[in-house]
Amino acid sequence: MFEELRLKYAHFLIKRKYLRKSDEPIAFKRAISAAKDILVILPSHETDFSASLEVVKYLQIHKKDVTLFISEFRHEAIRTNQEFKLLSYHPTQISWFFLPDKKLITRLTTKRFDAVIDLNRQEDTFFSCIANAVQSGMRVGFRKNRSSEYYNLLYESKQSEPAAAYSKFLEHLSMF
Question: Which domain range does residue 128 map to?
Fold first, then answer.
């Protein structure tokens, strides 16, 4: 029960501080294909992490400037010869309310991306906050609890297998 109160307060803070409503309508038809600079938030779960790298490969094939948001502990899982930038965080930068600490927020609010893609399939307040802290007009993610408040474009995954879920997500993403 106490954890649920912390989560509610965290969502309240995200809405108050980081949620930006755009006055301009978003043209979804070419939103991803027209985007040049994309932030990809990689999943925290091990099984999803390796399967989600297919999305990163897809974006690289299509000549996108990809920046990965990843835990410092996962750096060795990403090959350094790839052509993408890394934005990393340390697990100690996650506050008691499941939000990024001030130092990480300060670093992220200066960043500007054409699109943010959150590849976490489970609800995670920390990553929802990250997706909204950076400056971007387009936020894409999986449908989960409270996700409609934080993302412009949602994909509902009915697959429990990570590889199948990310494969279907790529099909969905390729339409945009």
Answer: 2-174
